[in-house]
């Protein structure tokens, strides 16, 4: 999903940050539970650990089927 958002002419070192920001801006973060937990977890994880990192599976208290 993030690869589709990469604008041309943006350096590869900056592109993952911009793509994650663009994806975050497209989400409805102002409403509770409007974004699936797995999607938001992946955005947060990648912002800290890098675009190529894989987030861990949801924890034991995560909603099923989200």
Would you kindly provide a written description of the structure presented here, covering whatever features stand out?
By secondary structure, the chain is an all-alpha fold. It has 2 helices and no strands. The chain has helices at residues 15-26, 37-49. Helix 1 packs antiparallel against helix 2 (37-49). Residues 1-5 have low confidence and may be disordered.
Short structural description:
Helix content is 38%, strand content 0%.
Please tag this protein with its features:
66 residues; mainly alpha; 38% helix; 0% strand
- Could you say which overall geometry the principal axes of the C-alpha atoms support? flat
Gyration radius, to the nearest Å?
Answer: 13 Å
Profile the largest sheet. none
Strand content of the residues, in percent?
under 5%
Low-pLDDT residue intervals, each spanning 5 or more residues: 1-5
Number of helices: 2
Extended strand count: 0
**Average pLDDT, all residues:** 76
Topology as H/E string?
HH
Distance between the termini: 18 Å
- Give the proportion of residues in helices: 25-40%
Structural class: mainly alpha
Topology at a glance:
Blueprint: H1 15-26, H2 37-49
Helix pairs in contact: 1-2
């Amino acid at each position: 999903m993030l690869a589709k958002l990469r604008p041309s002419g943006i350096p590869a070192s900056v592109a993952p940050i911009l793509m994650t920001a663009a994806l975050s801006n497209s989400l409805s973060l102002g409403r509770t539970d409007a974004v699936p937990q797995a999607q938001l977890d992946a955005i947060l994880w990648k912002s800290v650990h890098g675009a190529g990192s894989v987030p861990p599976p949801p924890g034991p208290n995560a909603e099923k089927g989200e």
